[in-house]
Amino acid sequence: MLAALPALGEHQEISLAPIGLYVQFQQPPPAAVADALKAEVDSIMRPSGLRFTWRELLAARGSDFSVALAVITFKGRCDVTGLNPHISDTGPLGWTAISDGVILPFAGVDCQRIRGFLQRQLLRMPAESREEAYGRALGRVLAHELYHVFAKTINHGSCGVGKSKFTVEELLSVSLQFDAGESLALRTSETHTALERAGILKGTSSFSAEHF
Ligand SMILES: [Zn+2]
Question: Which residue has the higher pLDDT, 187 or 89?
Answer without folding.
Answer: 187
